[in-house]
Amino acid sequence: MKFLSDIRLLLLGSWLGAACFFIAVAQSAFAVLPAREMAGAVVNRTLTVLNYSGLAIALVLLATSMVVRMGMGRFWIWFERLLLVLIAAACSVGQFVIGLMLLSVRAQMGKPIDEVAADDPLKIQFNNLHEYSVWVLITGMGAALLAFFIISNRKFTAAKTTTSDPFDFEKEFKK
Question: SS3 for 12-61, per residue?
């Protein structure tokens, strides 16, 4: 069971690392690429991969949480599952709700976002949706970090087979 737990930690840690790396990629794309539209396309594509992988990993970890129960109290098992559902929900909402709404607003603008006035209702809506997207990703990352610590602190102790026979001297003569 420790091997399965290690695989679960690897998956969760990989997604969490990818999410942290995504933040650096997003900032670098806007700093380096000549057109903000190109940078937005890179960030959108990278975020799509991050959301789909986060959803898949959360569902796999949720399924494997039904198998791994050793060394944890009932509260921690259900808390871990709640965090995994939160990760899946954050990735789903980020991709299928906020992401689609952002694409819709961008399509309604009809021109590059830098050419839209700051007080335009579509630009305000885009900025608000972008802020929601950031908060949803941060929520998923926080849940992943907590789940990582819960899984990593699981104790894997073998069940002790002690005899209650006070006259069992077999262990005394073993070297």
Answer: HHHHHHHHHHHHHHHHHHHHHCCCHHHHHHHHHHHHHHHHHHHHHHHHHH
Residue type, 136: V
Burial degree of 73 (CB within 10 A; 0-12, 13-18, 19+): exposed
Tell me if 140 sits within 8 A of 91, measured CB to CB. yes
Q: pLDDT tens for residues 117-156? A: 999 999 999 999 999 999 999 999 999 999 999 999 876 5
Write the CB contacts of 133 (distance below 8 Å, at least 6 apart in sequence): 47, 94, 98, 99, 102
Domain ranges, ordered by start, for the chain: 2-155
Q: What whole-number distance in Å separates Cα of residue 112 and Cα of residue 104?
A: 14
Per-residue pLDDT of 94-123, as tens digits, reads 999 999 999 999 999 988 888 999 999 999
CA 107 to chain CA centroid, nearest Å: 29
CA-based Rg of the chain, rounded to a whole angstrom? 24
Q: How far is CA 42 from CA 58, 148, 161, in A?
A: 24, 28, 58
